[in-house]
Each structure stands twice: as structure tokens, then as C-alpha cells.
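Deviations from the work plan: none for this task. Representative record:
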Amino acid sequence: MKVTLNNGVDMPVIGLGTVGLQGKDGEKSILTAIELGYRMIDTAQMYGNEKEVGNAILQSGINREELFITTKIHSPSNSYEKAKVAIEKSLENLKLDYIDLFLVHEPYSQSLEMYGALTEAYRDKKIRAIGISNFNQRRLDEFLRTCEVIPAVNQIESHVFYPQLNLKEYLKNKGIQTQAWAPLAGGNKSVEKQEILKKIGEKYNKIPSQVALRYLIQNEIVVIPKSSKKEHLKQNINIFDFELSIKDLESIKSLDSGKTLYEWTNHWQ
Ligand SMILES: NC(=O)c1ccc[n+]([C@@H]2O[C@H](COP(=O)([O-])OP(=O)(O)OC[C@H]3O[C@@H](n4cnc5c(N)ncnc54)[C@H](OP(=O)(O)O)[C@@H]3O)[C@@H](O)[C@H]2O)c1
């Protein structure tokens, strides 16, 4: 299943998050995910694992066009010139001729300059779509006043406890696709323990994590759950043979606390 971004590029609605997937073990998990059918992989310069992603892609033997690879630049690349160098570095690390989606990782004071370098690489066809991450409505409005290309994606914290449906709607009205980081709330077991999710899952023979991911997708939010375990990787992608009812969606909405689970995101407010 795919969504079409504001520039006509198609993006899968589920991908693999890769925080912490490093070294040989990380590479193996990424390869396993591709073998299980994952076609989108989310990495970042900050995660220090672009090389592992590149190696797994090569080993998989999957045609490049079938894959959708996302990466991100962060604060060490905080100028137009540094960001240009960083883009080349990502291409080299990933061993790719082009990157599908390149994001500015956080709303830095130099985000526009960094985005300017992404925009140039986008025009040079080294990147198929460009976007941002962790921008709230205020930050986004500021950014949109001056950026030359409307971001295709904003990757934000989003899970059953803080789906940010209002921000998603706002982004949608601007033509920007929402992508959820921590779609399983970071795996701290709180999702697995939720009675509401368990009960709904029983109707469809699904576990709470699968219901939680499906909830986001049915709310038009693309998900990138991370796992290092084959069993979890299988569970997370096996969510396209059931549909939550309107009543289910309403019940799950009651879990929304309106508050981030990640205190460190507060400095972007
Ligand atoms: N843009 C940003 O600022 C930003 C910030 C954070 C994350 N991200 C991206 O978003 C991705 C996802 O976020 P995340 O990794 O923080 O959290 P997440 O995907 O919500 O949760 C990952 C955790 O859930 C566990 N898990 C996965 N599938 C499970 C299942 N089926 N049942 C039970 N537990 C399960 C994993 O453990 P196992 O490995 O043991 O399965 C792992 O500990 C990241 O990997 C990264 O690519 C971006």
C-alpha cells in the first residue's frame, strides 16, 4: 500500500525504522526486513548506520526502484555548504545514485539553509522528495514563508498516546504527508498492555502493536516501526488483512493524552 506525495512520488505506508540497528547484527535485521517485504527504510546520519542500510540493500538483490530509502541531515551540517557535503556523504554511505526522501532532522536555526542544499540536490535529481522532521505548526508556518519547495513529508512523533491528529490535519491541508516516528511508542510495553488495544485486537486476531500501527495508517499517517526481531518485523508488516471500524477508531482515540512521551522534543516548541 502506498501514498502519493505532493510531487507525485509514491511512498509505502509502512517502512522499517532503524535507530540502534548497527553493525553486523543491525545489517542482518535490515536485510531480514527487506526479505520479509519491507520496501521503505528510514535511516539518518545521526543513527550512524547508513552504511549498514547500504550493505543490506546490496545483499538483498532487490531492484533499486522497488525500494524507498529515507535519510536525514542534522546539526553538524548546519550550513548550506556543509549540508551539500553531507548529502554526498549519505549517497556514498548508502551506495546509492539517488535517495528517495531526504529530511532536515529537526527545526534548527539553520534549517532553511540546510533545506536549500536539499532543494538543489532535489533539482539535480539526486533526491526524489525532500522534507522536514519534528516541525510543529508554528515552526512549519515560519518555514513555509521562505522555503522554495513545499516539504513532501513531516516526520513527527505519533502513536496511540500522542497521535497528533490536529497537526496531521494541518499538514494535510498544506499537502504535506505525516510520517510517524515511534509509532509503537518506543516499545516500552505500554502499547502491549493496553486493554483497549487487546480487546479490539481479539476481534481481528491481531496483537496490540498491530492494532496501534493500523490505527495510524487508517488516520493517513505513514509508519516506520523499528525492530531487531524477526517475529516482531513479521507482526508489524502483517496489518493489511483487517480494517478497524469507526467505533474501534473512536475507542483508540481515548488513549490520546495530548502530551509527548519524549521530553526532549519540548525544546522545539
Ligand atoms: N525524526 C526523528 O526525530 C526520529 C526520532 C525517533 C525515531 N525516528 C525513526 O522512527 C523509527 C521508529 O521509532 P523508535 O525506534 O523510536 O520506536 P518504535 O518503532 O515505536 O518502537 C521500537 C521498539 O518497539 C519494539 N517492538 C517493535 N515491534 C514490536 C512488536 N511487534 N511487539 C513488541 N515490541 C515491538 C522494538 O523492540 P525489538 O527490537 O526487540 O523488536 C523496539 O524496542 C526509528 O527507528 C527511527 O528510524 C525518528
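The pocket of NAP is lined by residues 17-19, 42, 105, 133-134, 155, 181-187, 192, 209, 224-229, 232, 235-236 (CB under 6 Å).
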